[in-house]
Amino acid sequence: MELLGYFSAIVIGLVLGLIGGGGSILSVPIFVYIFGYDVVTATALSLFVVGVTSLVGSAGFIKQKQIDFKTAFVFGIPSILGVLFSRRLILPNLPPIIINRWGITLTKDMFLLLLFSVLMLIASYKMIRKSERPRLRNFEETNYTLLISQGLLVGIITGLIGAGGGFLIVPALVMLLGLNMKKAVATSLFIIAMNSIFGFLSTLQMVNQDWGFLLKFGALAIVGIFIGVLVAKQIDGRKLKPLFGWVVLVMGLFIIFKEIFFKQLF
Which segments cross the bilayer (predicted)? Predict the structure, then answer.
């Protein structure tokens, strides 16, 4: 089973390099369902792996001049603040049992995983059904209020669920800001790197870290991201958006089935 988990590390990097997000969508379920970590620890491990691999993957996009740095920092700085707010204030104060009445028991872990899956379903629907808006002509036309508010919201949500946020950032950059898909993927990867690294560092003392495991898993993910970046050069950007949406949809449905239907049956 662990062998499957380590192979999944390569897939995480591949997804990150190919579509600019989705790595944490895979890593959180892997850490929970394959390696047996609790959700809070799994989210911290995910932030480390996704942060390091995204940072490495960003280097390739920097060489290609695909990253919109102005958008990345205006969006990313409020997002980092949102991540820190969630990881330091909201997450530690959630009770272990959120609901325990009417025959329904909703634990903290279940709540975080279900929130994670619902957000994935929403993002996947938007990515599959919506078309790209026209690209912004220049950064001066960008709505700064929209950029900052979206960044803050994404940071709060992704800090809470421990995801890098690509499944929220890419739709925001494409549909709200009008970036083309290639540039949105590259910029998202850079933002994910910032969010994930700061999110991991903010909870470093809150969970036990297995550095040997993290380094092995991270190294395999880095191999995958190099493969993904190379493959992305050969694929039309318009094909990446629905592909991204279907990956998110499948994982979201899997988590809902696992946490609700499977647990009720067994």
Answer: 7-34, 40-62, 69-90, 110-128, 152-178, 184-201, 213-231, 243-262
